[in-house]
Design brief:
The complex is a heterodimer of chains A (119) and B (111).
Chain A (H helix, E strand, L loop, with lengths): L4 E3 L2 E4 L5 E6 L6 E7 L5 E8 L2 E4 L8 E5 L5 E5 L8 E8 L7 H4 L2 E2 L3 E5 L1
Parallel strand pairs in A: 2-11
Antiparallel strand pairs in A: 1-3, 3-8, 4-5, 4-9, 5-6, 7-8, 9-10, 9-11
Chain B lengths: L3 E2 L4 E5 L4 E7 L6 E7 L6 E7 L4 E4 L2 E6 L4 E6 L8 E8 L5 E3 L3 E6 L1
Parallel strand pairs in B: 2-11
Antiparallel strand pairs in B: 1-3, 3-8, 4-5, 4-9, 6-7, 7-8, 9-10, 9-11
The chains are: A mainly beta (119), B mainly beta (111).
Chain lengths: 119, 111
């Protein structure tokens, strides 16, 4: 079974440019999450999809960030225009969810992350 | 305001000895507490969990203890092995599907 994949693994862009990160969750996982970690700090929640619907986007920093999940499969996170403080590692995670119990929600499978550097 | 705090950025332990990683939280409403392990250039992987109604959960060499009155949990690894060297994240899960992570503790296990 393929794990969560993220593309690209690294991205270096200039302030003001646009970047789009992609996440492919584990097949059949309804829940998809985006997180960000700035060096040495906590892994910060950004948002949560259930299938194609945004369940919780309370962690999105501002309206420069736009997340989509097409057809309930892969997801993209676009940053436009990028600012210096957007630098960090962006993780995507997925979990099965559903009615099978909380473990199927809290046991999340993470991708390797995309390291974004804004210069 | 950080709801999950890991106050030790790093910990060094001799192989074969016990590793104790600590975590404090502020919100009494968390349903589950989790530990994730992360190797360099990889995403975190789920390690072990504990329900808020339990005080201990054990899985092989890993045991998590929960002290609700102190709002504190700890992860014990016995015996520690060099392959355990990684960053360990404490996390708390609410029933609303939100997981709140700490900043992590880097564990070094010396051979």
């Amino acid at each position: 079974e393929a794990g969560v994949t993220q593309f690209p693994s690294h991205s270096v862009i200039e302030k003001g440019q646009t970047v789009t990160l992609r996440c492919d969750p584990i097949s059949g996982h309804d829940n998809l999450y985006w997180y960000r970690r700035v060096m040495g700090k906590e892994i910060k929640f950004l948002l949560h999809f259930v299938k194609e619907s945004k369940q919780d986007e309370s962690g999105m920093p501002n309206n420069r960030f736009l997340a989509e999940r097409t057809g309930g499969t892969y997801s993209t996170l676009k940053v436009q225009p990028a600012e210096l403080e957007d630098s960090g590692v962006y993780f995507c995670a997925s979990s099965q969810g559903g009615d099978r119990g909380p473990r199927y929600s809290y046991e999340q499978y993470f991708g390797p992350g995309t390291r974004l550097t804004v210069t | 305001d950080q709801q999950v705090k890991q106050n030790s950025p790093s910990l060094s332990v001799q192989e074969g000895r016990i590793s104790i990683l600590n975590c404090d939280y502020t919100n009494s409403m968390f349903d589950y507490f989790l530990w994730y392990k992360k190797y360099p250039a990889e995403g975190p992987t789920f390690l072990i969990s504990i329900s808020s109604i339990k005080d201990k959960n054990e899985d092989g060499r890993f045991t998590v203890f929960l002290n609700k009155s102190a709002k504190h949990l700890s992860l014990h690894i016995v015996p520690s092995q060099p392959g355990d060297s990684a960053v360990y994240f404490c996390a708390a899960y609410t029933g609303g599907f939100k997981t709140i992570f700490g900043a992590g503790t880097r564990l070094f296990v010396k051979a």
